[in-house]
């Protein structure tokens, strides 16, 4: 998230971020707008390196997919 907010700080775009980062990155001078009342729906992706070989990764991937796919 810090990289994303640094890009926002540099006026390279905008982002939707968790509310918890609002005060952690106050020093960047970014305007945070509460969108909690908005009816927001978006697609999400699980990003990982193609050569992921960590022994626990398959189980984590399965859990994430099960959570989001229902």
Q: Beta-strand percentage?
A: under 5%
Straight-line N-to-C gap? 26 Å
Radius of gyration (CA) equals: 16 Å
**Average pLDDT number:** 83
Order of helices and strands: HH
Overview of this protein structure:
The chain is built from 2 helices and no strands. With 70 residues, the chain is mainly α. The longest helix has 13 residues, at 57-69.
Summarize the structure.
The protein has 70 residues and is mostly helical. The chain has two helices and no strands.
Features:
70 residues, mainly alpha, 2 helices, 30% helix
Secondary structure blueprint with pairings:
Blueprint: H1 2-9, H2 57-69
């Amino acid at each position: 998230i810090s990289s994303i907010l640094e890009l926002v700080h540099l006026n390279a775009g905008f982002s939707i971020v968790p509310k918890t980062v609002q005060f952690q990155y106050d020093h960047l001078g970014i305007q945070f707008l509460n969108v909690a009342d908005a009816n927001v729906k978006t697609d999400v992706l699980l990003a990982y390196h193609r050569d992921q070989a960590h022994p626990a990764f398959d189980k984590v991937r399965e859990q994430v997919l099960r959570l989001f796919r229902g």
